[in-house]
Write a structure and sequence with these properties.
This protein is α/β, with parallel strands linked by helices. It is about 30% helix and about 25% strand. It contains 13 helices and 24 strands. Helix 4 packs across helix 13. It starts with a strand and ends with a helix.
Length: about 550
């Protein structure tokens, strides 16, 4: 099988015509007849908008041919093919172990790391027990909807906690920078499609599921784990790990249940602050980790479409996304994070008296606004302490201020008013500022107009403004006065890392830190991949 890059089709080409048109385009590129090309498989599809409004999709494709040796030989003298044609290096992942159903494995947390770890252990023949502090995804959705309407918080089941993890109430973005040496990224995507995700995620350069579809996918994975012999317990918060001679013995839960275990996976999520403290008190080695914080910005989606596509109406291309990066005068990175085309800003709080936000899109990305977090890098030197959990307190301090400033609601402000307040100290009445703007907040949760400059330290505010002004040079209108800001985006990644060795084991024997909460992933896909790697490690440990 061969792999060819830079095969282009007009972006308006219907997907049901890809097979014929790709075959013709490949045949033309390698100079053979179309009937000599077969078994075409799209590996990646990315949008080429360099000549907008004329847009193309660029494809990376695997294919078979009647005489592949001849094609490779002739490519050596064809400059346009020399760097774009090679033997395919596609790898099919195979879980390397067979499980022992008598071994007791507990997985704490049912986010992507915990679910994929549990799923692959179950497929191997183990009978994992998954313990989740929050509710099942259907009950959790109702609880979150009620919180957004009333502000009444359930500390155990919310946007951060519950089946599916924090990513369930997001855009469901699946892109990752991890090199797919062993086919793990591919197997994660294939697993998502098996449980209901659209097959386009198998090849889109920027794949996404959408929170509405992701909920069903998550439920399907849980049902498969149970079908294979595993068990899943909701509203079951682990409050103590029983350790004997520096080895895990069992997990005790808030509801009084106790689960003995030969191996325990900690897939607790990046917001499990109470669990971080418990683990530290129990002797687990933990260390500070850099992350990023910032504000979420909203623009009209039509403006982003016009900037990215050269057209206001996205049509079948779907709402346009963007990615922007800059460096502030103080040397901090400033960049977009969790960009949600056609999406909503959501209240993602999980602790009383604190406000944290996130972004969310449904599968259709049909909302009026685009939003993303514009975040600034922070390091342990910013935390003011060498305590392992100092980063948690750094987050909490800003979340408390956001809660106070917004009186419990999400604090929002127009960019022009915020900029004036930061630079000139002039607080502007938000309800009268840019009141004629067509840009209106698209927010899930209660919100309040207010001056938000006191949420972040001054240096971060100024870095944010420098970044916004820089981004405006590439996306005109990005730093317009009427752009809507909301804060605080503080949960971009875990502020701690639970130390593990090359066997994925912590300093407590039999305990496997896993996923984003443990500090080893950054997003749905990388967390799922880490879950599979930890499943391998657990299986090897128990072999």
């Amino acid at each position: 099988m061969l792999r060819i890059n830079q095969i282009k089709l007009n972006a308006d080409t219907p997907a049901d015509e890809y097979s014929v048109k790709l075959r013709n385009a490949i045949a033309k590129a390698v100079r053979v007849k179309p009937e000599e090309i077969y078994d075409i498989s799209i590996i990646r599809r990315s949008l080429d908008a360099r000549k907008k409004p004329e847009l193309f999709y660029s494809f990376l494709v695997d294919f078979s041919a009647r005489d592949e040796g001849k094609i490779l030989k002739s490519a050596k003298s064809n400059k346009s093919l020399q760097n774009n044609l090679k033997v395919s290096d596609s790898v099919d992942y195979v879980f390397p172990f067979t499980g022992d159903k008598d071994k007791k494995i507990v997985v704490v947390g049912s986010g992507p790391a915990g679910l994929f770890c549990g799923l692959f252990l179950a497929h191997a023949g183990f009978k994992p027990v998954i313990l989740e502090r929050g509710e099942d995804v259907d009950s959790r959705t109702a609880t979150v909807d009620e919180f957004w309407k009333t502000g009444k918080l359930n500390k155990s089941s919310n946007v951060q906690f519950g089946e599916g993890g924090a990513g369930t109430f997001s855009d469901g973005k699946l892109n990752t920078l991890i090199k797919d040496t062993y086919g793990l990224n591919s197997v994660v995507m294939k697993t998502f499609t098996e449980f209901g995700a659209d097959e386009s995620i198998l090849y889109d350069a920027k794949p996404h599921i959408g929170t509405d579809v992701l909920k069903n996918v998550v439920k399907g994975i849980r049902e498969e784990i149970i079908r294979l012999g595993g068990t899943v317990h909701f509203n079951t918060k682990v409050t103590e790990l029983v350790i004997d001679n520096e080895r895990i013995v069992s997990a005790k839960c808030e509801n009084g249940s106790v689960y003995d275990c030969d191996g325990l996976v900690l897939a607790i999520g990046h917001s499990a602050r109470d669990t971080f403290k418990t683990l530290l008190d129990e002797g687990f080695k933990m260390e500070q980790k850099p992350f990023a914080v910032g504000l979420r910005v909203q623009h009209k989606q039509s403006m982003i479409n016009n900037s990215q596509y050269g057209r206001i109406d996205a049509g079948d291309l779907g709402a346009a996304a963007y990615k922007v990066t800059a460096k502030s005068s103080s040397g901090r990175g400033v960049f977009s994070f969790c960009m949600c085309p056609g999406g909503y800003v959501v209240n993602a709080s999980s602790e009383e008296g604190m406000t944290a936000i996130n972004g969310m899109s449904y599968n259709g990305r049909a909302g009026n606004n685009a939003n993303s977090a514009i975040i600034i890098s922070v390091n342990p030197s910013d935390f003011g302490s060498e305590h392992p959990l100092a980063g948690v307190e750094f987050q909490r301090n800003m979340e408390r201020k956001a809660f106070e400033i917004g009186h419990g609601s999400i604090p929002v402000q127009r960019y022009g008013a915020y900029k004036s307040s930061v630079i000139n100290g002039e607080a502007i009445q938000n309800e009268k500022y840019c009141e004629d703007s067509e840009l209106k907040p698209e927010i899930k949760g209660l919100y309040e107009w207010c001056d938000i400059k006191d949420i972040m330290p001054e240096e971060l505010n100024r870095s944010f403004i420098e970044g916004m002004e820089s981004f405006d040079r590439s996306i005109h209108g990005f730093a317009a006065d009427d752009v809507i800001l909301a804060g605080i985006e503080s949960r971009t990644s875990s502020p701690v890392r639970i130390v593990r060795d090359e066997r994925y084991i912590s300093n407590i024997d039999g305990v496997f830190p896993c996923g984003e909460g443990a500090g080893y992933a950054g997003g749905i896909t990388s967390a799922a991949i880490d879950g599979i790697k930890v499943a391998e490690a657990v299986a090897a440990y128990l072999a």
